[in-house]
């Protein structure tokens, strides 16, 4: 009996490890499809939608209301920027919060990773700040140096995207205090991530500049 018990435990551990491995495989989900597919298949739990890998393993589940809010914010920022971009959710970049701007199959695209969704929660103004920053990279025609995951911009390009992003979210009617809250949260969350820090202007320097831009936009 003992052997059978151990065998069962062994098998379930293997399955668990296998599930954990496949769930970490980088993948992109188109945000529109997540919501529409979720409406068809997730009727048992209408509050959440599942993100499935091609082999049907569930990599994550996201609040349906957050996904709808995200699509709404994305549409409004796209309209303010007069661009038609595609929005993706990705499991890349774990465990750090991150987002990416790149051209995929000839289409301007942005991707938000699961850790970033976790960081922001359900704050629409913070999503507006994030999406506007990524759209700003496209508007300024900043070219990422490699594929989506490694997109690397210069500090100067990051500052430009911060400035234009703030203008866009302001134009789209979002509260700029959300941007400050977002960048403060992001700074705290990435303090230990040396790669992130090397790619972005230092936290304090960035926050100081963001406060200045917000002040000047409020004075206009
Ligand atoms: Zn950026």
Task: Explain what you see.
There is one protein chain. By secondary structure, this protein is of the alpha+beta class. The protein has one domain (22-219). It has 9 helices and 6 strands; from the N terminus they run αβαββαβββαααααα. The strands form 2 sheets. It has a 4-stranded mixed sheet. A hairpin with a 2-residue loop joins strand 5 and strand 6 (107-113). Helix 7 packs antiparallel against helix 9. It is globular and about 50 Å long. The relative contact order is 0.10. The structure holds zinc ion. Zinc ion binds at residues 133, 137, 153, 158, 161. Zinc ion binds next to helix 5 and helix 6.
Counting helices, strands and paired strands, the structural category is alpha+beta
Low-confidence stretches: 1-23
- Give the tally of β-strands: 6
The separation of the N and C termini measures 77 Å
Categorize the overall geometry.
globular
The radius of gyration over CA amounts to: 19 Å
Strand residue percentage = 5-15%
Number of helices: 9
State the strand order across the main sheet: 1-4-6-5
């Amino acid at each position: 009996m003992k052997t059978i018990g151990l065998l069962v435990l062994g098998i379930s551990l293997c399955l668990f490890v296998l599930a954990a491995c496949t769930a970490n495989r980088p993948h992109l989900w188109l945000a529109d499809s997540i919501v529409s597919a979720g409406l068809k298949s997730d009727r048992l739990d209408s509050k959440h939608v599942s993100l499935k890998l091609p082999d049907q393993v569930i990599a994550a589940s996201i609040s349906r209301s957050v996904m709808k809010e995200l699509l709404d914010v994305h549409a409004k920022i796209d309209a303010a920027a007069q661009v038609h971009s595609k929005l993706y959710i990705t499991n890349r970049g774990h465990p750090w919060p991150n987002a990416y701007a790149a051209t995929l199959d000839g289409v301007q695209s942005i991707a938000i990773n699961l850790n970033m969704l976790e960081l922001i929660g359900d704050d629409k103004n913070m999503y507006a700040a994030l999406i506007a920053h990524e759209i700003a990279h496209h508007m300024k025609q900043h070219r990422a140096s490699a594929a989506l995951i490694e997109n690397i911009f210069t500090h100067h390009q990051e500052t430009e995207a911060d400035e234009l992003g703030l203008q866009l979210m302001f134009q789209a009617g979002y509260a700029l205090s959300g941007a400050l809250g977002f960048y403060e949260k992001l700074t705290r969350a990435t303090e230990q991530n040396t790669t992130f820090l090397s790619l972005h202007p230092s936290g304090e320097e960035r926050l100081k500049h963001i406060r200045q831009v917000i002040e000047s936009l409020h004075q206009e």
